[in-house]
């Protein structure tokens, strides 16, 4: 038992088979197009609502979890500003909603990618929505606990690189990014001869974060990143906040978080290999750093459990319409 019922071979197999209004009048990102209401689903939402699974996940996937909950309970969700975050998701306060249901949805929370895997393995969560596949450490924990995880792609995201909007850099190559994060390139003028920005402040995330796992898997090619403790930022929002205030900063996040949840005013996403990160380029898989978002359950969960029912529904055209409604790029066609 390797801790994951079809990883890594099964992941590749499934991916191959798949083919792959507002409280504060916050504007929707320009490349996000609203979709018509999804068709009626055959899933029994009343059954799921009566025994709602314990859901955990990555920081970046919490809005998706809330849109799913709104769909299950049959109430509208909106984007707005809540609890100091530039954009978040809540039930629509302009519509009369049962307070207990509104509280349940609005109080949903995610831990982190790593902790979500731990909680699934240790039976503290029934379903997870995570921005990466399990790390070796998490697979070993699953094996030690005799647990197999069933993980399936549910949406598309991407690793993106963030700079201060005062930085005129127009493109980065993967080789350049590797050179920066291995300490071979230290000044912006080495990336753009006309740049007068100065020394590169290369921010990074902690080892167990989803975005850190992504940069190591998609960019670094087993090269060791420079160890600069002062540049290690423990949260996704913290990294973007630092770059928002630092004209010399460079960092990384995921497209969904940087675009929908924390689109800081003084930051910009840099095109990679000449391709800008956008929903259209992610959907077409033209952007070079695509990352799948996964829905996971324990492999031994009964097929009639509400966690498995929710997982299966998310992989239907109806469920994928909710993925789109949340702002993610769908991994399956909505109208096959």
3D architecture notes:
The protein has 336 residues and is α/β, with parallel strands linked by helices. The chain has two domains: 187 residues, 3-Layer(aba) Sandwich (D-Maltodextrin-Binding Protein, domain 2); 127 residues, 3-Layer(aba) Sandwich (D-Maltodextrin-Binding Protein, domain 2). Helices cover 34% and strands 18% of the residues. The protein is built from 13 helices and twelve strands. Strands 1, 4, 5, 6, 9, 10, 11 and 12 form an eight-stranded mixed β-sheet that branches. A hairpin with a 2-residue loop joins β2 and β3. α3 packs across α13. The longest helix is centred in the N-terminal third of the chain and has 12 residues. 42% of the residues are buried. About 11% of the residues have low confidence.
Could you tell me the number of beta strands?
12
Largest sheet: 8 strands, mixed
Would you identify the regions where 5 or more consecutive residues have pLDDT less than 50? 5-40
Secondary-structure content class = alpha/beta
How many helices? 13
Fourth-tier CATH superfamily name of the largest domain? Periplasmic binding protein-like II
How many structural units, i.e. domains?
2
As for the CATH topology of the largest domain, it is: D-Maltodextrin-Binding Protein, domain 2
Radius of gyration: 20 Å
Mean pLDDT: 87
CATH first level of the largest domain: which class? Answer: Alpha Beta
Oligomer type = single chain
């Amino acid at each position: 038992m390797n801790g994951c019922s079809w990883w890594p071979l099964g992941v590749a197999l499934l991916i191959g088979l798949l083919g792959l209004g507002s409280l504060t009048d916050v504007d929707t990102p320009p490349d996000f197009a609203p979709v018509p209401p999804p068709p009626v689903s055959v899933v029994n939402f009343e059954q799921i609502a009566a025994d709602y699974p314990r859901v955990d996940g990555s920081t970046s996937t919490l809005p998706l979890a809330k849109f799913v909950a709104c769909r299950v309970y049959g109430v509208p969700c909106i984007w707005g500003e809540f609890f100091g975050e530039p954009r978040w998701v809540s039930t629509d306060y302009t519509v009369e909603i049962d307070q207990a249901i509104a509280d349940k949805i609005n109080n949903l929370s995610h831990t982190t990618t790593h902790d979500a895997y731990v909680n699934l393995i240790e039976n503290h969560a029934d379903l997870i929505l995570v921005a990466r596949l399990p790390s070796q450490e998490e697979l070993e924990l699953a094996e030690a606990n005799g647990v197999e995880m069933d993980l399936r792609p549910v949406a598309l995201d991407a690793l993106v690189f963030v700079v201060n909007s005062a930085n005129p850099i127009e493109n980065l190559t993967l080789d350049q990014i590797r050179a920066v994060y291995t300490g071979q390139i230290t000044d912006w003028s080495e990336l753009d001869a006309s740049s007068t920005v100065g020394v590169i402040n290369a921010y990074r995330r902690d080892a167990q974060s989803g975005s850190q796992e992504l940069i190591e898997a998609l960019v670094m090619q087993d090269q060791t990143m420079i160890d600069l403790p002062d540049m290690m930022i423990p949260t996704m929002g913290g990294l973007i906040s630092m770059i928002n205030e630092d004209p010399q900063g460079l960092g990384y996040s995921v497209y969904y978080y940087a675009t929908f949840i924390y689109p800081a005013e003084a930051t910009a996403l840099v095109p990679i290999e000449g391709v800008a990160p956008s929903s259209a380029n992610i959907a077409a898989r033209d952007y070079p750093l695509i990352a799948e978002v996964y829905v996971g359950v324990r492999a031994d969960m009964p097929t009639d459990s509400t966690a498995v029912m929710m997982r299966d529904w998310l992989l239907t055209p109806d469920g994928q319409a909710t993925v789109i409604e949340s702002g993610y790029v769908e991994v399956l066609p909505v109208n096959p």
